[in-house]
Write the structure tokens for this entry.
Amino acid sequence: MEKTKQKINTGNEHRDIPGNPSTSKSSKSKLRKTATADSLKVLSLKQWNFWKENGYVVIKNAVSREQAKNTAKFLWEYEEKNAEDKETWYTAPRAKIKMKELAGTGMVEVYNNQHLWNNRQTQRVYDAFVDIWGTEKLWVTIDRANLNFPMRPSH
């Protein structure tokens, strides 16, 4: 008699998925579908519609200039690159990225770094996410940052 493999539900169907699958695969919450000008905290209705059409939106002055500079400085240091020296920009990654589709995309895996937490804790960033999700009950994750360089033929 041949034995068949039976899938056992361990409660962790995401163990082979890199990153944080808690939000990408198992969230029951859905993004807000509609908005009115008076229901938005940060976004204008025009920005809301842009978000719905394009999947991203730019929030000006979401973090202070000083905070943005501190975060950028940290990312340059972490990646062992120099903003003033282009020769350092295209060196091999410091570590292999588990999600192979992100290789060469500028992802910097600095999970839960304080600079990223500081950015996410600003009121404008929080309120922008409230606008997008349509709820104040948010679960914040800090997964990674991005450091992009101009395209070169060999990269």
Notes: The radius of gyration is 20 Å. The chain has five helices and two strands.
